[in-house]
Amino acid sequence: MAYVIDETCIACGTCLPECATDAISEGDIYVIDADACIDCGACADVCPTESIHPEE
Ligand code: SF4
Ligand code: SF4
What we know:
The protein is mainly beta. About 10% of the residues lie in helices and about 20% in strands. It has one helix spanning about 40-45, and strands at about 5, 25, 30, 50-55. The radius of gyration is 10 Å and the shape is globular. It binds iron/sulfur cluster (2 copies). One iron/sulfur cluster (SF4) binds next to helix 1.
Protein backbone atom coordinates (compact mmCIF):
# COMPACT_ATOMS: atom_id res chain seq x y z
CA MET A 1 0.00 0.00 0.00
CA ALA A 2 1.01 3.57 -0.67
CA TYR A 3 -0.63 6.91 -1.17
CA VAL A 4 -0.90 8.34 -4.69
CA ILE A 5 -1.25 11.88 -6.04
CA ASP A 6 -3.79 12.39 -8.82
CA GLU A 7 -3.90 14.85 -11.74
CA THR A 8 -5.69 17.52 -9.69
CA CYS A 9 -2.39 18.37 -7.96
CA ILE A 10 -1.56 22.07 -8.35
CA ALA A 11 2.09 21.61 -7.31
CA CYS A 12 1.70 23.89 -4.29
CA GLY A 13 4.33 22.06 -2.25
CA THR A 14 2.29 21.88 0.96
CA CYS A 15 2.64 18.11 1.23
CA LEU A 16 6.40 18.00 0.75
CA PRO A 17 7.60 18.87 4.31
CA GLU A 18 4.93 16.64 5.87
CA CYS A 19 6.46 13.41 4.63
CA ALA A 20 8.67 11.72 7.22
CA THR A 21 10.32 9.45 4.67
CA ASP A 22 10.89 12.03 1.88
CA ALA A 23 8.75 9.92 -0.43
CA ILE A 24 7.30 12.91 -2.29
CA SER A 25 9.05 14.40 -5.33
CA GLU A 26 8.41 17.80 -6.91
CA GLY A 27 7.18 18.21 -10.50
CA ASP A 28 4.34 19.59 -12.62
CA ILE A 29 2.33 17.08 -10.61
CA TYR A 30 3.97 15.82 -7.44
CA VAL A 31 4.74 12.11 -7.20
CA ILE A 32 4.92 9.68 -4.28
CA ASP A 33 7.53 6.92 -4.35
CA ALA A 34 5.46 3.87 -3.42
CA ASP A 35 8.51 2.05 -2.06
CA ALA A 36 9.31 4.88 0.36
CA CYS A 37 5.74 5.67 1.44
CA ILE A 38 4.79 4.23 4.83
CA ASP A 39 1.09 4.93 4.36
CA CYS A 40 0.83 7.45 7.21
CA GLY A 41 -1.59 9.82 5.47
CA ALA A 42 0.08 13.02 6.73
CA CYS A 43 0.39 14.42 3.20
CA ALA A 44 -3.26 13.76 2.38
CA ASP A 45 -4.36 15.65 5.49
CA VAL A 46 -2.72 18.90 4.33
CA CYS A 47 -3.42 18.84 0.58
CA PRO A 48 -5.72 21.81 -0.23
CA THR A 49 -7.08 20.14 -3.37
CA GLU A 50 -7.55 16.67 -1.82
CA SER A 51 -5.34 15.22 -4.55
CA ILE A 52 -3.75 12.52 -2.40
CA HIS A 53 -5.52 9.22 -1.79
CA PRO A 54 -4.71 5.72 -0.57
CA GLU A 55 -3.86 3.46 -3.49
CA GLU A 56 -6.73 1.15 -4.43
S1 SF4 B 1 1.34 8.85 3.22
FE1 SF4 B 1 2.97 9.52 4.66
S2 SF4 B 1 4.83 8.39 3.99
FE2 SF4 B 1 3.33 8.31 2.29
S3 SF4 B 1 3.89 10.03 0.98
FE3 SF4 B 1 2.26 10.75 2.39
S4 SF4 B 1 3.37 11.67 4.14
FE4 SF4 B 1 4.85 10.41 2.96
S1 SF4 C 1 -0.34 19.41 -1.28
FE1 SF4 C 1 -1.66 18.50 -2.90
S2 SF4 C 1 -1.77 20.06 -4.52
FE2 SF4 C 1 -0.03 20.58 -3.18
S3 SF4 C 1 1.79 19.61 -4.16
FE3 SF4 C 1 0.97 18.17 -2.64
S4 SF4 C 1 -0.43 16.84 -3.81
FE4 SF4 C 1 -0.07 18.66 -5.06
